Amino acid sequence: MSKPWQLTQGAEAALVDIARWTIETFGPRQAAAYEEDLIAACREIAAGTARSQECKRFFDPDLPETLRFARAGQHFVVFIEYDKQVIIIDFLHSRSDLPRRLANLPLPKSESGH
User: Fold this and answer.
1) What is the distance between the alpha carbons of residues 84 and 32, in angstroms, rounded to a whole number?
2) What is the pTM assigned to this prediction?
3) Percentages helix, strand, coil for the chain, rounded to the nearest 5?
4) Where are the domains of the chain?
């Protein structure tokens, strides 16, 4: 069963930036298609069907165990799955400095804290 999911303000801003860059680089049609791919990845994460991995394992052992990522096109969808919902923390490009970006992400304190 799919859980409700929501974007943090940072994830919303990243999605807008991704759309803007894609429109400027590839046009509005491609931007719409890619945005739908990213949203579909969020739905798969919430449904429990996305292949995801712990950020801690791949990027930094000091990251929280609950912080996970799933690949979607050229981006990683970074999220935390709680018992009752999924919080999409950010969309990070695969060419970005992932360890640094992950270490600086503002994370929600708890499921009720967001």
Assistant:
1) 29
2) 0.89
3) 40, 25, 35
4) 5-103
Residue 48 has which token pair?
């429990």
What is the C-alpha radius of gyration for the chain, rounded to an integer number of angstroms? Answer: 14
* Measured distance CA(103)–CA(74) in Å, rounded: 20
Q: What pLDDT score was predicted for residue 113?
A: 47
What pLDDT is stored for residue 104 in this prediction?
A: 85
Whole-number average pLDDT of the chain: 91
Give the distance, in angstroms, between the CA of residue 50 and the centroid of all CA atoms in the same chain: 12
| Residue % of the chain over a pLDDT of 70 | 95
Pick the CATH number of 5-103 from 3.40.30.10, 3.30.70.270, 3.40.50.1820, 3.30.2310.20: 3.30.2310.20
